[in-house]
């Protein structure tokens, strides 16, 4: 049959980066091609990162990818089903503590929203509540305007300062792990579409969220076993030093190694890392890959309850916090892991991003810095351009940065690149 991949037609494909994008692409390609998966770190998984912590030293806690739902994560849900990954229900809620705790509220219930009783008599707080209803009702009217930033959209809508500073920017900053000031430059249509897809513009029909039982390492371990059984050559702890294109293929050199030839390469890395590794990047590649900025987020897994909102009624799955002197450079966010994952209440765990407040050293389990893409108009325009040129010079790019930055986006992007490569290979064989 013309579209079958014979042994002679099997390509050698290098995938650089073993996060969800790279693992997904390798998994899709490995049944019909020879795949080598390079990963700089000694482990696979990327932002799927589970730490064993707790006062008894036996509690798996995720510090990167944490939750998913079946409505908005179809590729991930399908992968988990095929790998028989165990999942349990999670709880998603949002709370804010601003100006050093002078203003606090939660969105889980009316009691959480008015945890500070005086807010029921605060005209600015009540206007914020009205603006939330107004935003939710009118946001979709502007979803097709691709040139409107969030800041411009809020000006058109005429919402107040409280809504902007104490609701929309903290909530959006928490979603994208991005400083609130940068959210104003975010494309309004992308934010509105995301809110609509995730039922954030509605007051009912909220999606049920889930988390991997035993931590995300449970799915990474299963997927790694599957990749090995498919014959994928896994090279963890092997940083790539350079990539160059040659006639009919590419060459890759790992640190301390020699140049190796492959038919195709898939970069499943951050876009700036891909650009750094390309020794012969074209002007187009440099412009497109360089258009996406990244925000480093310092992440601490700990058990210090003082980092949470002052009022226990406000405690939520996601907690945006500001000190009395607000910073513009980074977002201060704490995940209450006992709410998100099946962790006993008597063993408190929190994952905090970028806090300037002191976390008690004896209560810290783990620290790491992860980078997340910043989505402005330049970044979203670059996504479209990369898709249009993907596969040029046998070079492909994928990653969560190609979409909204979430785990589903990373997997979907990796699968999209793999499918495009397979389609082109099939057409090439049919023409022979």
TrEMBL record:
InterPro entries listed in its UniProt record: Amino_oxidase, FAD/NAD-bd_sf, Zeta_carotene_desat/Oxidored
Pfam family, one: Amino_oxidase
One function term, GO molecular function aspect: oxidoreductase activity
Domain annotation Amine oxidase: ranges: 20-279
Protein name: Amine oxidase domain-containing protein
